[in-house]
Amino acid sequence: MAACGGGATCSYAAHSGGRANRGRKKKHKNHRRRRPNRIEPSAQKGFEIPVEKSDKSSRALAMAGEAGRDPRAWLAVNETAAAFLSRSLSSWPPITLPPPLHRAPLRPGNVVEIAGPSNSGKSHLLLMAAVQCILPKEWEGIYFGGLGRAVMYLDLDCRFDVLRLAQILRNRIAEGCRSAHLRNGDPEPENNGTKDEFQCSLENTLFSDCMQRFLYARCCNSPEFIAALKTVQSQSRREVSGAGIYFVMIDSIGAFYWIDRGSQPARENKGRTLQSITESVVHELRKLLQLQPALVLVTKAPIYGEGTTTANDFNRVSSKYMLGDSTGLGYSRQGEEKTVSNREYMPSIWQSFITHRINLQVEEAEVPSVLESEVLPMHTSEWVQPCLKMKEKFSIMDDGVSLIQ
């Protein structure tokens, strides 16, 4: 019995082993027969979407997303890559800004850093861009070419000039009204150098509407700056005068650098170092851009320049030219001091957050003004990111920026 049992056991094992081997062979055979997934030419015709259907699907997809944001409705629509790109780019069209900011195509979500020394025109370019944003595109049949959106201006230098903003805005309004009268062939709305009451009332009404779309906050330290960014996030949830915040302006980002750096040892235990403060600023700005796509314009002044360079920087500059003549030494030092003044001092997290960067300079040359007794300084601009490999010369006047050919 034991032998029989042992034989039965052996035969069962052999039988079960044979079935297992056949199963493995069968699976291996099926695996060898498996072919890569391919779409036959006859089936590919069903996946081709004509241009008309692509446009319709793109519109249907946008409507489905705006209506109920139903995932099934989103999956039910076929859309080509070309239709997706055209729809995405049309939803965020490029923003037209006054020169010299007009060279680079800017869109909501970009962060532009305007760097330059004092009196290079950084704050003036911010005011020009702000006026372009708060002005309507068309008002009472008069074309102004603005965006009709709100601006949030964060003043960290505490040197904001509201009279300068009002002057630029009134000049743009008067220029638009004057151009409209010239196109219509109407006479000038001025009589002996003064405007009539109707024209003044019209311009004052538009001026008030535009100023309601300009939001301003003054910050005296980094905690107030971070709190203001949180306020901008809550402010962006509701519309201001029928328009959401479209421009966020910061003047200037390095205003509290020395304060934060000087108090850094006392704040190490509390986690309020210069690096952590910059990380908080970038974090709040990213949250704002996710909540409300906007264009961020930031000014940055150099903190390392003539009179503020460290001893190591000065020794490194002068040691290279100790054997040169006086002319060459002066020229070389001037170039090196310019390099030191443009030295980056913001943490790396801020540098990686920037998408566009433009450098402004003030040249020694002067430009004659319309008034014979007035001479304007000449400014230069150069796009560093993206690198456009060109320098533009311009002058700043009361009615705007004039490019110099």
UniProtKB/TrEMBL annotation:
Molecular function GO labels: ATP binding; ATP-dependent DNA damage sensor activity; DNA binding
Alphabetical list of Gene3D superfamilies matching this protein: P-loop containing nucleotide triphosphate hydrolases
Region Disordered, annotated ranges: 1-54
Domain RecA family profile: 81-309
InterPro entries: P-loop_NTPase, RecA_ATP-bd, XRCC2
A GO term from the CC aspect: Rad51B-Rad51C-Rad51D-XRCC2 complex
Superkingdom as given in the UniProt entry: Eukaryota
Compositionally biased intervals (Basic residues): 21-36
Listed GO biological process terms: double-strand break repair via homologous recombination
Protein name: RecA family profile 1 domain-containing protein
